[in-house]
């Protein structure tokens, strides 16, 4: 984690229903669904079962029998940058989608119903960073958190934090906490007094081949062992494991190039 704060429940249980604006799900769209299941299953110990098929083949990842993430299959003709996409809870996906559009963002998919589990939309902020909206019905989001193999944090990498924070604040009603440090541009977003996500402004250091994008941090028991296993499975190391104020972190990518991070929390 760059310099962000943790939000997982200390007892390892997700709340029954997420506060509007809080991250409530992460999902990945890939070209090779079976190979991706094999990779993440071996890395995190996930098992899989079919999920809603409105956007094509889709599976939910389970850890100890409880849902933690989703993976879907991209159409063969879609060649988009692959990335884990955070979904933010909304009491009304249609109204939130309208708010996204009115504040300079775009909605590319939906809002549409995902069977009886909820209503979703996929959009992007004014800089092009992709995120999702989720209005829960039967499916409330991850049923497990705070343990290895589960999402631990979501962080937006963008050009600068101020304008991005303003967009997300006006859409979701976040409070902001800026890091006051020369040469370090970071804002933590809060909802209901709790930190829910971070925005890191990288300026010209933002990878030109990727542009602004969200990064999901997954908790692991030992980040160095996890990196070694990831490489064995065909993944790639983008930034080697290093210590931060919140734990030991490595930036990595899966065999198809989807970027994410591994986090070993401080004891």
UniProtKB/TrEMBL annotation:
Gene3D superfamilies: 2,3-Dihydroxybiphenyl 1,2-Dioxygenase, domain 1. Coiled coil: none annotated. Residues 22-136, 150-265 form the VOC domain. This is Hydroxylase. Residues 1-20 are annotated as: Disordered. Pfam families: Glyoxalase_6. PROSITE patterns: VOC.
